[in-house]
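To: structure subgroup
Subject: Chain for Friday's discussion

All,

I'm putting the inputs and outputs inline so they're searchable in the archive.
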Amino acid sequence: MGKVEEKTGQIIDLASKLRWQVGDDFHDKLTESIYADAAVISSRVESTRDRKANYTFDRALDRILTSRTFGFPIMILILSVILWITIQGANYPSGMLSVLLLETIYPFLKQVSASVGLIWWIDGFLLDGVYLALAWVIAVMLPPMAIFFPLFTLLEDFGYLPRVAFNLDTLFKRSGAHGKQALTMTMGWGCNAAGVVSTRIIDSPRERLIAIITNNFSLCNGRWPTQILIATIFIGALVPNGFTGLTASASVIGIAILGVFFTFLSSWLLSKTLLKGEVSSFTLELPPYRPPRFWKTIYTSIIDRTLIVLWRAMVFAAPAGAVIWLVSNVDIGGDSIADHAIFYLNDFGLLVGLNGVILLAYIVAIPANEIVIPTILMLTVANLNMIGVGAGEGVMFELDSSMETGAILKAGGWTLLTGINLMLFSLLHNPCSTTLYTIFMETKSARWTAVSAVLPLIFGFVVTFLVAQIWRIIAGI
């Protein structure tokens, strides 16, 4: 036994020495050599066939979609078109749902409440708080998801998404992450909670954690309304009326691309600090292109993705609406809780180019990004002692046009800097409670859930602070 143990020790020592001699890219070289041998064998087998068979539709299309010259521009164009269709297409059903839920059902419920003599605070708590929060989540969140998820799934069925992963593999590898994170990142553009769940396709626990923590930098559909409205009010106003929509859309797409940059940056930082390790080899076999199964895709994306994610958001939005109503209507020393919070938060908010209203709105609206803008409007009106359109003070609402909304915000002291920093903070703030809950369920770790919440906040405050200080230095010159 002594000789056996001695030989075993020698083998282990030799293996340890050789491990450091093969280099960090050993697995990549091994994979490349395997595929090179497979290509040689395949070419010998196919040499007896008609060489024209090599020029199939799949190979011709892959030469374009995965090329170094056209791959990235086409990828950005396709994803931009999907986002544009989602943004534009969601406007009409969102408007219809808003009319139904807020202009028809809401007044009816108020009439019923008045007819039965419901106590004012119960009426406000249930209808002006809980119901309005749920109504805004449904009206704002359902249409974009119902459009984005089917389009995304159609691309997946067609076989294009593996090409996206192929194009981004090198960038993710350089940032210390897995190539499949490209798929989870794009899924996050529809919903970050769904993007977190989709990280199950990554086998490496370390790289899956990186994908989970950084998915929040994908601009989810709950944040699109905030981006579009603020871009229209503040950035679109900088150009002639005919170019307002185009300029606003371009700025929103720019924010989405900035989110991709922060995904790479945060992945690199995590891979060098908390989640050190060797990058896994990404062996990707590109599947053949095939016609999407349209009706099955529609059914699957709506049932398995849209409705499940919407239900989770509604579960968290209901108590958020109650909290929003309470902080706006419960007085302490003659002022509401919201007034006190805004006063204490305002100095720090101005330091980072925001204000106390925005910071409080993101605190009380953490369950759902969809209710941030209505909450900001409600708090701004309450802070100015104004009366909302069809609603009293302390009631969550939204005005009929961006011009009316802009007038309210500018009356509250908003400037172009405030608008730009809100767009940046909307991208870089902590995940919503639905996403945080999903992260905890996927990782079973309070520690990594906390990291997922704190890391974006650090980026958000650092970036907005730097932008505010540079802006003020330039403005002072």
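Points worth raising on Friday:
The beta strands are 331-332, 335-336.
The radius of gyration is 26 Å.

D.
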